[in-house]
């Protein structure tokens, strides 16, 4: 239907008519819903070219297409190209079109920060996400969902730079806000719980980290199911903290579970399943080489 509408409008109105452009965008949305991201990218690029021709480089509509193309590229794992689009959208929206505190500007900055994290540009990611967080706190408030996402993302950027204490503070802030705004069992809340557990684990606070990992696992099992990637990551991390606390039998159960569930739900050759196998092998080797009376210290 969308393709037929586009073809008809191209024939009658021309390629750069606003109604034709609307059909291009609608077809792109339909392709996204079908998971056809490669075809969606073609439509997004076409929409961008048309808007550049009709409106110019810095028009809000053009920059909307720039941002959308970044989203489409990011979905396909094309993080380098996505970074360029998000950077262009951020700069254009901030300096020329909308201003630094407009929500579209902050959305582009947020996505730029996430792309930088994936590209391991952690220092720049931290600076970008801090700016986004400040803007969202000012315009949306401390406990808005978008603000809390930025707080969590800042925690990730800090953790990647081994600033674990600062990361812990951000995760606690994000968790408190998420519990208040979204509830204890929302996916975003459980993400904050999981990330907080990681920051605590890195600092050696194993008792509280274990409690947080159990909570993340229980919530994710209930909401996402046993075979979801987030659930399986929680199982692996719980195995690691149990191992570090000297609870070897419980740790082994977790690692075997991660391997079995990974193979069942994701397939034997999936990256997360293979990671589970590697963790299990390393655990068994470590346990075999550890004297019975050697128990790791834990706080």
UniProtKB/TrEMBL annotation:
rRNA-binding as UniProt keyword: no
Keyword Cytoplasm appears in the UniProt entry: yes
Main location: cytoplasm
Gene Ontology molecular function: kinesin binding
Cellular component terms per the entry's GO annotation: cytoplasm; kinesin complex; microtubule
GO biological process annotation, one example: microtubule-based movement
Subcellular localization: Cytoplasm
Gene3D superfamilies associated with the record: Tetratricopeptide repeat domain
InterPro entries: Kinesin_light (IPR002151), TPR-like_helical_dom_sf (IPR011990)
Pfam families: TPR_10, TPR_12
Keyword terms: Cytoplasm, Repeat, TPR repeat
Protein's name according to its UniProt entry: TPR-like protein
Origin species: Choiromyces venosus 120613-1
